[in-house]
Amino acid sequence: MQSLTNISLKTIVKKQVKWKAKLYISALSSLVILQIIFGILLSSSGSTSGYGRGNLSVQFSIYSLDMFLIVSAFWAFIVAILFTTKAYRIDDLSVISSRTSSAIANIFVMIIYSFIAVVIMISTFYLKVLEILLVEKQSFIIENLFISPSILLLCFSSICLFGAIGLLLGTSFKGPTLIKVPIIVLLLIFISLVSINLNSLMMLPDLIISVIYLFVSVLCFCLTIWIADKSEVSRK
Amino acid sequence: MNIIQCEDLSKSFGRRNALQHVTCAIDAEKIIGIIGRNGAGKSTILNIIAGYIKPTSGSCKVFNENPFNNIQTAANMIFIDDRLSFSDYLSLEDILKFGADFYPNWQSELAYRMLDYAGLDLTAKHQQLSKGQLATFNLVYGLVSRCALTILDEPMNGMDEAIRTDFYRAILKEYLAFPRTILITSHHLQEMESILEEILLIDKGSIIAHAPLDEFKEQLISLSGPSDALADLLSETEVYAQTIVAGMTSAIVDTSKLFVSEDLLRSKGITLSHLTASEVCKYLTSKEGSDIDAIFD
Amino acid sequence: MKATFFLFFMPLLLVAAIFLLLSKLSKKIKIWTPKRIMIGITGYLVLGLTAFLYISFFAESKIQVLSPFEMKQLEKKLEQIQKYDLENDSSYLTEDYKKKTWELKYEGDTLPVIVNGDDSGSNYIIRMRYKDNIDSGKAIVTYYQLPVILDGIDLSDKVPLPNVYMAHNELFIESLSEQQVNYDRIKPTLSILDFNREVEQEPYAMDYSYSNVLIIDIPRSTVLEDSQGLVQYIR
Amino acid sequence: MKGGFSMHVHLDSTTPIYIQIAEWLQHEIIADRLQADEKVYSQYQLAELFNINPATAGKGLTILLDEQLLYKKRGLGMFVATDAKERILTKRRNEILTKMAQELVLEAKRLLVSDEELLVLIRKTQEGLK
Fold first, then answer.
1. pLDDT for residue A84
2. Complex-level ipTM beyond the 0.95 threshold
3. Is C51 part of a structural domain of the chain?
């Protein structure tokens, strides 16, 4: 009898992450294009706020990170759902993997990609700034060129959260019915609760929001692994 | 040593029972042909063994562990069928590197030589391959990974006649070089039977035969001779099929229930002939009175 | 609910649509291997870094943004100015604030003043002051511009000056038509958050009606005729 | 020249393969291609040669071993028994020839050939082959 191969889950996850991060990279290139389309081409004026004082009317076009973050977060959500679709799941079966290892690998890839997404976001932001600088030389105000670490963390955690929700949703759809239904209901309740209390959530300090987002992300990740562990392979 | 042990295994998809109370044991390092008609339950049992799906009831042990979503099973098992797929971004050469990274027993050199022999372009993408080329590549992938349990589900589907023979030989030679358990399903039992050690015949979700190939073939025998000479004999044994033409009867009967010596039969003008494995399969799985001729009567 | 829908789902659908379109397209274009994509993305990041370096080295912003602390101080100062004004004390109008001076000549001892403001009302206050060292038949009109701060930006220079001239032996003060100023502000924060938080606090916008002062200096012998009642005496 | 056979050996699909292997080996011994006390093919060599499962090949070898046409040397493999050729020939004479004679007689009876005619036919055939 040939001796059996003993491979730990950790080794396999590491290998899967290595390959997935490389093979799914077109997701990142699409983020770049999305960022260029939305951040640079579409939002040419930024968000504006006007003040009128006597015969002086002042209009501020504010270029903040909002649009870049919204695009990145939605991108993460879509990419995460895509990672759980059939085409990607079937690819996993071609090498040593289990649903659990694939789910964990997807989570790591999502985290890595969220990080890169933040860097891409910043890059686009500065390119946008450069564009404004070259086009509107006179009325150019830099309030602060450096993005504060707390904002960066908030961006990362927001993108991560959307990715985590996407992974959880995508995995739930393929999971056993007994698990699928409560998870999706729970998720919908959570999203509606958040959107109702969005204003009070946004009043919190950046760091607290980040921590809440990261906590929910981790929760979603755990649920994702748990569901994946119970899921059968469906190749139809 | 049993590599696979199924006990009272059942699986249903909704109302449809795909497997019903299957009990079987498969020894290590054997080439086993899994035969059955379409929808007999072959894929279901293979999917359970591979750990892809969960049995509804009963237990299945692979390498003494529950295979379902088990990384140890996955590490020692490879499942090759026509649904094997790889990322769009990988060329065949990349796929080989990909496999080599995962499977510890991977045979890189051999893979290159086999693909070269089959005339596959290493820079091609997996999706661009024709059906036959795809089957060839997948089979090579399955063989060079040298997993203790290699499941080949219709590995020759779509391959040219000429290359099929070559690749059955390739399976055998690879098996000789690195003995492992190989489960093969195929619609063409005839062309692969010589490399098989055992046959597992599945019909309507149950295993109806599991035996070494020769024993399996000897299970049934064909008798032909004058109808009157055969009549008595046939009433005592189990008859699987029977045709009567101009006073001559030929019948397929269960060998184990035939207690007459060959010499006696010969003296009565009855000739005995062996059946091929695929004929045995056909008769064992055909429904009572299900004869294509009956449709036209 | 409608707003949430448009804010949330429309961009999501748009992003999804473009994303799917891109992935369809990228499948058609076979040249994009992972390695090339990686090089492309790295290139993009390097481009972003270059932009950042260029901006930080070569793009000194001409307009300074005041910190909240500085603005608080200015606010205090402005309050003091108002106090001075209420006490008819002109001593706060230093040379620093002087923006423009008109020297005007008139005949006789009376100087009628006509103020033509537009609908937005007066953007400046008009004060008159007697000066001893001015020859009769001569008036000096001085425009003082006190700081105008909006969202931390000093807009003092942008405020349009009034038009001051003599006609038919009458002093005309006319505001110019509305002036529009545009600023592009780079604010590397999340304005959704900033906006929500600022609703609670007072925005740092200072009232600007007290910020422009027009002083008419005339000799003591002259009587200023102010039929509109807009001009107050100041010491 | 051992490798050269595979091309010429065709297995038929109705007779059990292991019996065909046993018969082929016996044939090799009769034809002196396998000498007495010479090492015979291992089951793996046979598997490769005939493109069959090694277990099946092993079964073929076991038959010969049971008939003591082969003997085993521990760790070295199987060898042709000294008297293997003799015994095969005797066995064939006894078994195969008897069986063939049986069939011949039965067929002759069916075709209404008389006993004398059959004997003449046999003699003639023998002379023809000389």
1. 92
2. no
3. yes
